[in-house]
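Task 17 of the worksheet. Students: predict the tertiary structure of the chain below and write it out as structure tokens. Keep your answer in the requested format; marks are given for formatting as well as content.
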Amino acid sequence: MVESVVLQAEMGDLESLATGLNLVWMLTVTFLIFFMHAGFAMLEAGQVRSKNVANQLTKNMLTWAVGILVFVAVGMGIANNVGTILGGGSGSSPLTQFGLDPSVEMAELLFSAVFAMTAATIVSGAVAGRAKLRAYVAYTFLLAAVIYPVVAAMVWYAPGAEAPLLESLGFDDFAGGMVVHGVGGVAGLTAAWIIGARMDKYGDDGSVNIIPGHSLTFAVLGTLILCFGWFGFNVGTAALVIDTGEFVLGDFAIVGRVAIVTALGMGLGALGASTVSLAMNGKVDTLYVANGMLAGLVGVTGPTDLITPVGAIAIGFLAGAQLPLVFKLVDETLKIDDVCAVFPVHGTAGMLGLLIYPLWSVEGTAIGSGVIAGGLLSIEASAFAPQFVGVATITIWTVVATAAVWGAFKLIGQARVTPDHERDGLDLAEHGVDTYPEFGQPDIAADGGHSSSVARTDGGEQPLRSDGGTTDGSEIEMVTAIIRPDRLGAVKQALAEVGAPSLTATNVSGRGSQPAKMGQWRGEEYTVDLHQKIKIECVVADIPADEVVDAIADAANTGEPGDGKIFVLPVADAYQVRTGKTGTEAI
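Model answer:
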């Protein structure tokens, strides 16, 4: 009797230990997946223009803020109930998920929610630069409440049924290559098609204008954050560390293979995109490498538990290689303005991985031999048809549902901002902020508008003074110099040495004798004929202007075209704000 009680106690302790380990692992990877939102924010912010950065960051934050509430309150319940109905089961689940137990069930709910929010945030990158914030938030609400839950119900969730609908047909999607990324990519492409291209993307003759994003640094940082979080996304799906019924390894029995498949997909995606970029453009495009890493990860995400490492190498490379080709097709042939390339990164890459994985299935028949277990090919022929059916079903549902929502917004004039707001940038129009105020226009026009008198610098008549006189014989002069940014330090030192340390420096851009350069954005070349310069303004009174000019000229000279120019203008008067002094005493 005593031994029986002790045995029961030991079994209870083991079950509690197993449950605790499973929960710790599940929550750890859940937090890791949540951190991917930082990656999406940086990746998308880097690929949009500086005037739309705050809008893109805001959309990423609101995706989570709105989506988590809607998915917990409605979406998860719809997924469970729709899954049960489609799977032929009986019974129903509560629509609102607030009544779950505070341990395992709520942890599983949060785990499901971070997957849903990943699908939602992908869409924002496709419609960047022209979608109204309210329209995007409303679509996020509907995606988290209905569109994504229906897809998840067909593949993952069907309590009370033997299996979800598509799973019962043999469709496999382990970590969301199609359920999460495919939905996000297809929805993004559909929304971008419905809402239309940015106003300056395509010319009247159908030509494609290249619109570079404002920061490759942000884009690459976001990519690497996403890659880090992706280990939680794929490896985390192996959430059952210990089977609590038998006290043996659960999904962790394959966790090593899942991890190496994820890492290989990431690396080979970058190589695939690099190879095609080099073949197309003669250069390895940085953004294609970054996007290729993500495309490779998406490619192996769906079948990550079902493919051999050789399969990860093949699928990762192909997923990366298709990226430049599909982006070019969407951008130049279909004329759909997918700003952040969400369709080739998340859409076609996810489809590709799930459709061709049976060539390298761990459950297939090995063909050939290789140094990595599983052979060069390991074909599971019976899996092709179910994978095609699953991918097609999810694609059709996503296109129809997304087109209906954005089509309705467009019909009532709420899909995109006005042309004036688009030209000014969504940061100001939608949020009233300037992400980079130091490099933009001044916030206040102190003169109340444009001046009616224009200074002549071509040798014509001198400009009028406000007191009716002229500037002839002025003792105050302004020396304005346009120089290379890297010569600013030397010029400051030279001015200090001639006794004119006071100056104003401004970041400007312009063109003159310096030859234009060719830039590249996703492999497409564009002309850069506005060069970055520094404008220095130095007002002098008791120091001869020619000495200031000589000092600047000597310090700024490199002997190459583009060194800049110096202008000397008379100044009518000066006023020192602090002391009230005027004229030469104010200088």
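Marker's comment: Residues 2-47 form the longest helix (46 residues). DSSP finds 16 helices and ten strands in the chain.
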